[in-house]
Write a structure and sequence with these properties.
Blueprint lengths: L3 H12 L4 E3 L11 E6 L3 E5 L2 E6 L1 E8 L6 H8 L3 E9 L2 E9 L1
Parallel strand pairs: 1-2
Antiparallel strand pairs: 2-5, 3-4, 5-7, 6-7
Length: 102
Amino acid sequence: MKSRLELHEKLCDILGSSNVYYDPPESIKLKYPCIIYHQSSGDHVYSGNKTYLYTKSYEITTIGKRADDDILERIVSEFEMIRHGSTYTADNLYHNTFTLYW
């Protein structure tokens, strides 16, 4: 089973900086571009009324000042079990959301 710290290191490598935050408190001042992520509900496969297989999932959001940043492509190409959710702009920052099964 892969650890959250392994995921954190991989996200730092993809971003090319340490601006990767796991469940950051509101008091943290984010540096852009950045990646924010937190653990989500995961995926269960049942057999015989029991959990046969469980895969952790993480909700990942990339945030940057440029619309043409290639972080989206880098994230999608580096992970096998990932789904792009949405793209939106808030506070003049560009956001992309993903669900990653890790």
